[in-house]
Automatic annotation (TrEMBL), chains A, B:
Keywords: Hydrolase. Gene3D superfamilies: 3.30.70.360, Zn peptidases (3.40.630.10). SUPFAM superfamilies: Bacterial exopeptidase dimerisation domain (SSF55031), Zn-dependent exopeptidases (SSF53187). This is Zn-dependent hydrolase. Signal peptide: none annotated. GO terms for molecular function: hydrolase activity.
Length: 406, 406
């Protein structure tokens, strides 16, 4: 069994870097704070005797050798970048649970056949740079290193520049790092486990996702003298699309999701009719056919709205991945470990994307969920119980040992 | 008749101060550029033989004596501060048209019975400091000198400090400056005159205005794992209110106006359900009863929405002034002058607020509109035709002479 209080202490220590007033963390990908967070985790890994490899997109692999040098490593991990108003557990838990597994193996002098590795993947959140899950996406070939390097934040800084600046542009070619099996522990980021009073979520699959940027162009004009019928109000058209985004998701329960999270209004002045509005659309479903239907309904609504209003509307898909069923062997290993340890479990479809879905393209993969308070994540008040985090880490230990061999 | 090319040259000269790359002007109230603009206008006034008075809020009166010392002056004016992305004509035209009237009277050696004065009012735009129309507002007692002095810009600098710094904190108590009648020429800032192909807008009234800040509080949560029915999506509720803002205005044609110009979404991240949305609402009507009905419909809609959704919605009124009908004598003088001069005219209700609405509380007042290109204002591409500006100035000359007596 792992050491729950050591795991908790590490989580709290890492959460100091980029800590916010409201108890959350703001540690955006490839910022100076991300560098500090990476440095701290790498320092801990070195203290635990692990060997560090960094690849060209900044993914970090921290290795504990096994007894059989011909076996590929059993890998666990997640990410340490956060949302702008993120919490202490999202991603960080998965990385530090992996580190705790290693520390426990060290304490107990357990030697595994296959090597054990703990990884953290670059820019999982996609808040500062799209695409989201960038590091694991490049690793599995979902998009190219060049595409990732060229991504820019709102200030125009690129991933390539920022990776070099913080010193995490490594030598290894992404993907040229063998993986025998991959496990990722994560807080659920939803309310289901808590609602059903279960400790461990066995994750059979992750929902597919389509992300869009939508821009509506109207005509800036003075809010007073411009009669209603002569306006080309970009915001009024944009808000109709925002309402439809939610309506589309509501037509495909229980796994349809529709969210507008980001809005920019130009020139954003009280007495000026908005001339341009740019916003994001996030559509999800666990069924790829239904996700495609949702995509088509969105496209059709926008075409209809453009032709009815005469305003120019641009809809660009900026990210897409299909639903991802996990490997039966890994899902089974998680289910078995939880049963052995006597934890209550249930199956939970993941609504959030995780690095595991990309790694699953190259190796058998599975995930372990633990409850988070009120299902809240991507929020500074994100919280989780130490005993739940400990339970998830114990399940990880047992699942990894089953795959690695002792 | 006035000298149109001299008027145009002065407009272009003044527009050099704070000129932007895109052909506009950025000369925010009480900045160094505002000081330079004020100094230039005062220098021109001195060259035209005018006597300068400055009051405590920095309003400047430039006086040409009349033959009858017992008569109060006939005043014209406007403002020379601009929007951050403002044009060359908004406000500046009204001040320089007044100067051109004086220059013309000088050229023709015309003596008026009542004195003639040209005024410019401090901080009409309200972009750097609220409330808007500050100088004329203090002048007529709409709010106190202390309130105005205490207003601060985003950098924390106050109106009192900045007025003193640029050397325009005068001696005279605002309002203790007699006005016999007031005329203000201005670009229309709307599309009506151009649409109807008329040269002169006779302004019977200015619409009343209510400005609000509205805040919707929901619950930030992850866009993937949070089922639709468990969300408290602040943006979905906010967009319903934004749609209703326009719907309310459309129920009260032709003078109902409803605009949402400014929106801030928190945390504004693509895969986070917005936890808080703050936005502005601008409602206008020329009929105060209808404006009040619009206010009540907005309030009722928000109460209903709050109770239906369970989200907290705050609506705060941050500005209000009632509709302002202008004095029949002044409106008549404008109409008569335009007819005498043979210009095509129509009545245009002003949708925008102007210093004239505050001055109208102390003296008979009226306004003269001229067309602006595509009705565009509060924009660097704001434009107006020299012949239209000349026509408006000729109407001003005749209307002022009628009221001043020759
Ligand atoms: N787990 C997580 O927050 N991933 C980011 C991508 C997503 O929005 O699902
Ligand atoms: N004329 C003008 O732009 N005034 C500012 C206040 C308003 O929005 O009407």
């Amino acid at each position: 069994r792992i050491n729950g209080s050591r795991l908790w202490t590490s989580l709290m220590d890492l959460a100091q870097i980029g800590a916010t007033d409201k108890g959350g963390v703001k540690r955006l990908a490839l910022t100076d704070l991300d560098r500090q967070g990476r440095d701290l985790v790498v320092e801990w890994a070195r203290e635990a005797g692990l060997k560090i490899t960094v690849d060209k997109i900044g993914n970090v692999f921290m290795r504990r050798e096994g007894t059989n040098p011909s076996l590929p490593p059993i890998v666990t991990g997640s990410h340490i970048d956060t949302q702008p108003t993120g919490g202490k557990f999202d991603g960080n838990y998965g990385v530090l649970a992996g580190l705790e597994v290693v520390r426990t193996l060290n304490d107990l002098h357990i030697k595994t056949e296959a090597p054990i590795e703990v990884a953290f993947w670059t820019n999982e959140e996609g808040s500062r740079f799209v695409p989201v899950m960038m590091g694991s996406g490049v690793f599995c070939g979902a998009f190219s290193l060049e595409t990732a390097y060229a991504a820019r934040d709102v200030d125009g800084k690129s991933v390539g520049e920022e990776l070099a600046r913080i010193g995490y542009q490594g030598e290894q070619t992404p993907g040229e790092h063998p993986i025998g099996a991959y496990f990722e522990t994560h807080i659920e980021q939803g309310p289901v486990l808590e609602d059903e009073d279960k400790v461990i979520g066995v994750v059979p699959a992750v929902m597919g996702l389509s992300w869009y940027d939508c821009t509506v162009e109207g005509m800036e004009a003075h809010a007073g003298p411009t009669p209603m019928h002569l306006r080309r109000d970009a915001l009024q058209v944009a808000t109709a699309i925002m309402q439809e985004t939610v309506a589309i998701a509501n037509r495909y329960p229980p796994y349809g999701r529709g969210t507008v999270g980001m809005v920019q209004v130009f020139p954003n002045s009280r007495n000026v009719i908005p001339g341009r509005v740019k916003f994001s659309i996030d559509l999800r479903n666990v069924n790829d056919e239904l996700l495609n239907t949702m995509h088509e309904e969105m496209t059709a609504f926008i075409q209809r709205t453009a032709s009815e209003t005469g305003l120019k509307i641009q809809l660009e898909r900026v990210s897409y991945y299909p639903p991802c069923p996990f490997h039966p062997d890994c899902v089974g290993a998680v289910r078995k470990a939880a049963a052995t340890l006597g934890y209550s479990t249930m199956d939970v479809v993941s609504g959030a994307g995780h690095d595991a879905i990309y790694v699953a393209r190259l190796a058998p993969a599975g995930m372990i969920f633990v409850p988070c308070k009120d299902g809240i994540s991507h929020n500074e008040i994100e919280d989780a119980r130490p005993d739940h985090l400990e339970a998830g880490c114990n399940v990880l230990l047992h699942a990894m040992l089953e795959r690695a061999g002792v």
